Fold these 2 entries.
Entry 1:
Amino acid sequence: MEAVFRTCPVTGLKVERNAETLIMFNAVTSIVFLLVGGLLALLLLLTRWQAVHLLPADFFYRLLTLHGIAMLVAWIVFFEMAVLYFASAILLNTRLSVPYLAWGQYGLMVVGAAITAVTILVGQADVMFTSYVPLKAHHMYYFGIILFAVGAILGVCVFFATLGAARHEKTYVGSVPLVTFGAIAAAIIALLTLAHGAIVFIPTWLWALGVIPMMDPEVYRLLFWAFGHSTQQINVAAMISCWYLLGTLTVGSVPVSEKFSRSAFTLYILFIMIASEHHLLVDPGISTAHKEWNTGYFMHLAVLASMMHAFSVPAAVEVAQRKKGYTKGLFEWLKRAPWGDPGFSSLVFSVVGFGFLGGITGVIYGTEQLNIIVHNTLRVPGHFHATVVIGTSMAFMGITYYVLPLIFRREVMFPGIAKLQPYVFGTGMFVFSTAMMFVGGFGIPRRDWDITGAEAPFPVAYGPTADLALAVMAVGGLVAIVGGAMYILVAVSTVAIGKKINR
Amino acid sequence: MSIFIPEKHWWRDPLDKDEKVWLAIALTTSIVLTLAMPYWHVTQKQNPGSEYYKIKPDTFDAATDRFIQQYGVKDEAGAIKQEGGIDVVAPPPGDVFVRGQQFKWSPVLKLKKGSEYRIHLSSIDVLHGFSVQPINMNFEAVPGYDYVLKVTPTTSGVFNIVCNEFCGIGHHTMVGRIYVD
Amino acid sequence: MSLKEEHRPLGTNALIYFFFACLVAFYLLNWKELIGVWNVG
């Protein structure tokens, strides 16, 4: 495959055809999984809303498993592959190294995700996203995940090969751009994470095949979260790269201090990987001292990094705005910001939601003792819907509005809907996550088809306030699903029938 | 711009005052958050226990059965009383066994307010979530591990043990009970 | 880089300290809730 370049008329960057095609394929596939996950979200929401209680129990658990895989794994990782190719080949003005390998990435991930999804749908893997042993799924479930992970490893290898080639061929001089630096952090975390994924899923697969007699459930939990939570740290690093990218694209922001931002990314690489014991705070098998060392020292240094970004991302936007002359008072820069640009409003929702809802609760829930009143209640999914959906997904959605004209070279369809989309989706998700954490405070469990104990030996009641909050959660969720549908409508119709931009 | 190559020697630029102040506050916060955990262990009484033993699920199952036989609440005929199909046990302060299995918590416990119990929590099949409601305390029941929680009920009333770790299609039917008086 | 005084990110400072206040408030609120549960150790 020969490298063919064009020059982007907006940014002046050189865009290579292979990189561009792979970005398109990965982005479109991720949106397909978002659509699947979104439809499932609707069904699950209408089931957990106790007044509607739509699905039967077995379907609820089955589709909840698939919802986790489609959203947390497929939608996010496919999009991240697009981000990695963008941050390497495009931002460094170079070609994508070893494009064959990149196609291998795409193929393996598609096949792996499909195998896992089908195994779940035919009812052979009602084990939830976490698949805690000794609950056993059909071996093809684990096999699909392994293929997907190998694909993702290939993608990360292509990313590093591209960086190496760009350095070798001197397509840039000096240090890589901040967005690329953030992507490097994400990619390093990804390699370590996927290695843990191999350590945990290959033996589990062999166990499901009957080759290995048994797995220790606590060791599984420890290793699974070294994979599962670190996956979320890839998301965080990728999301924050997207924040800096969106700041630049929407208001032309410059990082206030490269040193400050890059140090924060480095803290992620050093500490966030190891800090996964906060999933095991109320477990046997690990000593108190170890739990505190792990969640305290390692996690809080990663929290420090997030707090640094929480300052430097809005500061970059503010300084850029102030330099344009919006210097009156504390907030003229914010008032005069491009609120009609879906890239910008997505950025604001993403930063505020990740920080205020996801970040604060994450720090609190990850405290050893406080976890007693948190573990496995709805507080937990409330927290990660704030981080992964409002944070990561909205950042990716915001990026899409720029990827469509810059990479797909099509005018965004339905600009009115696009303009509104972040507000609808963001507001819905804010209500949804907040209500979910609120009901979790009553002790309502996550992953539970029926919280009334109707078929149990004893009835369970959480009180009228909790029931009302569940209804609020459902309404918020429905609004968010409308917002998600708007995003998919705009993205899919633009890709399919949007007007081509001619240069 | 964050998408372009930074200026040369970017690492030599000093931080602005605003960044330095926030960095100091954030770092202090991180340290305080970390120290809060050992501090609570020393000064307060709500901590996830550190005591656990490896145990074979069969052994734990048998130990729970012995516990039920020993302290089961008997009716006139001498049979152990049941509630919701689960044996009822009124143990003295000391060792108490709570067994999770698909899809049942057993036994039903009758405890005294203010007495300390050593609750041995485990599962004999898959993972279960030991969630006492509405007081909202949550622990993990792991097969192969005997998790010892020194619990002193400080409120009286009727409490449900809800399973909050997905354990199979009957997960939502797994509700046990604790009475405290 | 050194910024001119009128370019200083004062609004961001205000937002980040508001964020910090929220963090501290919710943190304390949760400890308070924890005291309500049974003694366990």
Note: The mean pLDDT of chain B is 94.
Entry 2:
Amino acid sequence: MHSEIREQPFEPYAELLKYQQAMHAAGRYGATAVFVGSMREFNEDETVTAMELEHYPGMTEKYLHNLGEQAAARWDLINSLILHRVGRVKPDDAIVLVAVWSTHRKDAFEASRYLMEELKSRAPFWKKEQTSEGQRWVENNTAGY
Amino acid sequence: MTIEVKFFASLREQLGRGETRLTAAGPMSVAEVWSQATDNAEMPANVLMALNMEYVTADTTVNDGDEVAFFPPVTGG
């Protein structure tokens, strides 16, 4: 189980392949569930040209680490990976990558949804959007898994 | 005793500072830390609180050397 904050843009599919090869688990997993969240160029009917992603250094890393451990305790997982961007983000940049490897699909699907929903609901990140009208904090929070 | 206090995102901008250090005579609650650190500003109803980087509620006791953080609902992912 691995999680990491990234200050620079990352290519999620290259990261996925690199991590999967380094796991040395080929032949053991039958299911891989992957979620990639990317920055849109619009939100609430406005064009968004960039975004600042803030986090709470220390707590965010701790929260994501614990989340990975909780998923592993709840489902039958072989491995999991969470990458999340901070700093200045541009449209089409990957914001988050969640990947889960398991023997069968049910655990991979459920655990990946759990990681993503809990991350969105509770992990200390905040988005500030740059639009043609100026800057604004994103305020919509979601309920979790 | 000394307590480190942090504010994030829109709350940091509203309060005009990201961190401050409090000195207190003895243990206090997270709510009391808020009051002392913000000159008795009204606490937003949806504010989230963390003590030493774990979520807590306003009645949790804060001790010497602790780090307390206040922030708005999170919007990552």
Note: The first strand of chain A starts at residue 2 and ends at 6.
